[in-house]
């Protein structure tokens, strides 16, 4: 696909935004420009904690935009990392004069509890897709999704509890106000995300606040998840009680509940807003893709409809082209970190004990079938059940599952895990390759994975420009056809040998939880069946 050069954009690092001038950086190796750590909202601190984001203050002079801002405050091992002042975004574009370029705004993964815009760096992808790539920090954990009666003011957005999603929508407003200055087309914006970011993207589809802010979405490994406000209130109350005991304000849980009951709404709100942010983040723990441990994306009625994704049934949502991603062994990284398997991975008995090996393999097989299906097939089916829905395209990324492409050890443990496709878009080696530097990316498999990466960028480019990945503008690539209920080959398989990409529409179809359970019941020993259904899969999004 050729795009004419014009004089609409002056290719230099110094650019003007609505709020002031910024000076970015040049990526000589990739022929791109970047601007990092740009404020898109006022810092959500002090009185602005748990409020809908507002506009940032303007500045005078030139703001340096060469370094990433701090990530949103989050758990990091036994401590916390990042800052409560975190509402910043990053922009990359080709170092050319082209204007009216498509824009992709990306929301990172991490369970809505961890991660940062730095996780998806777009200096290579911007050039490969001839587009503007923007990655966004948004509020996480207890600072991003929080329900508590003491904070209610009567303002629907402030009371929603959906601060992280409101941040994403605020970033999209910033794009509408500023991206033309970077040569972007405000009428051709794709909202994209991975994992929790993809779930946020799908929630934005049904949000009445998203109207006109994007024309397409790309949801990589994100299912349809929302929570009731009551779940959030219960979680915040439990966390607050725990904190009161830890802080010495109460000697027991009962004592803490009594203390809460004696405070006025204003006193309790003040106590919560003055609490050190790291204590709040720590009190909420981690999720491991379980909504119960961290309810978020609340059906509040203002940001997300009370009926949640049932609003699709009435056609009351953003009807735009959709690209869905999933992975062949989507569940493997969660099995790898599951308490039921960690000891046998660490002491290597997973590779010598036949029962443990079979249980782990079963977790990968059936957990991935249910989880990848939840992220692709279930979303595609739900969206295409509505007559007005434009085309939906789905893929399954399978690189790393063929024998001989990656080491036998990494293939056994992970294969093509959740998130592995992101490095193939960004060109970075931040995921599995960082965890297993010896057995994953190698000189031997480089030709095949580079061919696959180039093809994925071509398909994405075509989708960003037109809403249809087609053949990626390359005659040698397979035509990517839309999802339909009766398609013989509904999903695009993205794979590669050591030397060549293997890409084609596939007959693979992953069934839902009930069908997967029935298969497990039939094929697995009772002990393995119970381990997986009652412990390993229990409470996960795809198993609810």
UniProtKB/TrEMBL annotation:
It holds the Pfam family COesterase. It is an enzyme of class 3 (hydrolase). Its EC number is 3.1.1.-. Belongs to the type-B carboxylesterase/lipase family. It comes from Paenibacillus xylanivorans. One of its GO terms (molecular function) is hydrolase activity. Residues 15-343 form the Carboxylesterase type B domain. Keywords: Hydrolase. SUPFAM superfamilies: alpha/beta-Hydrolases. InterPro entries: AB_hydrolase_fold, CarbesteraseB, Carboxylesterase_B_AS, Type-B_Carboxylest/Lipase. This is Carboxylic ester hydrolase.
């Amino acid at each position: 696909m050729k795009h004419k050069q014009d004089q609409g954009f002056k290719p230099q690092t110094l650019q003007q935004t609505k709020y002031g001038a910024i000076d970015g950086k040049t990526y000589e190796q990739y022929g791109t420009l970047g601007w990092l750590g740009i404020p898109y909202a006022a810092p959500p601190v002090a009185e602005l904690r748990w409020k809908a984001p507002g506009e940032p203050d303007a500045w005078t002079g030139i703001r340096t935009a060469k370094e990433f801002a701090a990530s949103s405050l989050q758990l990091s091992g036994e401590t916390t990392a990042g800052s409560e002042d975190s509402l910043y975004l990053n922009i990359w574009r080709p170092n050319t004069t082209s204007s009216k370029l498509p824009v992709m705004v990306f929301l990172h993964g991490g369970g809505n509890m961890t991660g940062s815009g730095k996780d998806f760096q777009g200096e290579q992808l911007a050039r490969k897709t001839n587009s503007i790539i923007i990655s966004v920090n948004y509020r996480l954990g207890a600072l991003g999704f929080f329900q508590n009666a003491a904070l209610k003011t009567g303002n629907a957005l402030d009371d929603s509890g959906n601060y992280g999603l409101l941040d994403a929508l605020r970033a999209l407003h910033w794009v509408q106000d500023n991206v033309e200055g970077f040569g972007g087309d405000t009428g051709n914006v794709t909202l994209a995300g991975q994992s929790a970011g993809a779930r946020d993207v799908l929630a934005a589809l049904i949000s009445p606040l998203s109207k006109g802010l994007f024309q397409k979405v790309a949801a990589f490994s994100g299912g349809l998840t929302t929570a009731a406000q009551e779940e959030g209130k219960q979680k915040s109350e439990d966390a607050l009680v725990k904190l009161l005991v830890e802080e010495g304000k109460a000697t027991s849980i009962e004592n803490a509940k009594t203390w809460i009951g004696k405070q006025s709404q204003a006193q309790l709100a003040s106590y919560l807003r003055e609490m050190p942010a790291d204590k709040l983040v720590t009190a909420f723990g981690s999720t491991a893709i379980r909504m119960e441990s961290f309810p978020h994306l609340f059906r509040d009625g203002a940001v997300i409809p009370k009926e949640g994704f049932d609003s699709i049934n009435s056609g009351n949502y953003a009807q735009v082209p959709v690209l869905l991603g999933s992975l062949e062994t989507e569940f493997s990284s969660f099995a790898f970190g599951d308490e039921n398997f960690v000891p046998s991975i660490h002491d290597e008995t997973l590779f010598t004990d036949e029962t443990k090996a079979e249980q782990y393999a079963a977790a990968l097989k059936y957990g991935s079938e249910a989880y990848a299906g939840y992220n692709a097939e279930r979303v595609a089916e739900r969206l295409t059940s509505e007559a007005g829905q434009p085309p939906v395209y789905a893929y399954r990324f399978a690189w790393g599952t063929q024998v001989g492409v990656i080491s036998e050890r990494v293939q056994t443990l992970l294969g093509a895990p959740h998130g592995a496709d992101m490095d193939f878009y960004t060109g970075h080696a931040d995921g599995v390759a960082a965890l297993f530097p010896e057995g994953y990316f190698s000189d031997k498999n480089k030709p095949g994975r580079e061919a696959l990466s180039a093809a994925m960028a071509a398909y994405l480019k075509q989708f960003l420009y037109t809403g249809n990945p087609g053949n990626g503008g390359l005659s040698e690539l397979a035509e990517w056809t839309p999802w339909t209920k009766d398609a013989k080959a509904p999903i695009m398989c993205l794979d590669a040998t050591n030397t060549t990409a293997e890409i084609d529409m596939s007959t693979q179809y992953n069934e839902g939880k009930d069908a997967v359970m029935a298969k497990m019941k039939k094929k697995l020993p009772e002990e393995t069946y119970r381990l997986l259904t009652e412990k390993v899969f229990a409470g996960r999004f795809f198993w609810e």
